[in-house]
Design brief:
The chain is α+β, with helices and mostly antiparallel strands. The protein has three helices and nine strands; from the N terminus they run E-E-E-E-H-E-E-E-H-H-E-E. The protein is 26% helix and 30% strand.
Length: 175
């Protein structure tokens, strides 16, 4: 369910709809505007304002942005921006149009139709490739980052309408 947004802008991004809220942040569908009518839809993860003063929570939020910036893989959404505007920290990321694996499983259960084996294998295979990329990634000095996601759950797996699985929420990942 998309919820209306109270404050329609953060930095250079127009907030369109609130998608979700978690323990530390709110997630919005937003639009980045540029010159000549250019725009692209993005996802904004906005840290709750009271966490900006909480050193550990702010560091976790910033670490997630830096960690995602190190990763470039078709099964991991790209991060575009980390910023501070209007008194809040935010992270701008690739918008993945689709649904979660949780949604797919609920629909299958409601219709009493099991997920086809080929679909399940395809999703798991793509997730394994994303996790392998994260774990094997090296920094600019060639040192392995050995990123471990630590929260691979159905709600953190987005599925596009084209059948691409994307692993999201590296908020508690460790190197």
């Amino acid at each position: 369910m998309l919820l209306p947004v109270k404050h329609g802008k953060i930095g250079r991004y127009e907030l369109l709809h609130k998608i979700a809220a978690g323990g530390m942040a709110e997630i919005f569908l937003a639009r980045q505007w540029g010159q000549g009518g250019f725009f692209r839809d993005v996802v904004i993860k906005r840290l709750f304002a009271h966490y900006a003063e909480h050193e550990h929570a702010l560091r976790m939020f910033q670490d997630e942005a830096r960690l995602l910036a190190e990763l470039s893989h078709p099964n991991i959404p790209q991060v575009y921006d980390l910023g501070y505007a209007d008194g809040v920290w935010y992270l701008a990321m690739e918008h993945v149009s689709g649904f979660t694996l949780t949604d797919l499983c609920r629909t299958a259960a409601k219709e009493q139709k099991p997920m086809p084996l080929a679909v399940a294998i395809g999703i798991v295979s793509q997730l394994c490739m994303a996790l392998h990329h994260a774990h094997e990634r090296s920094d600019e000095n060639g040192q392995p980052l050995r990123i471990v996601h630590r929260d691979v759950t159905p709600q953190n797996i987005l599925l596009t309408n084209d059948g691409i699985a994307k692993l999201i929420d590296f908020g508690i990942a460790r190197t």
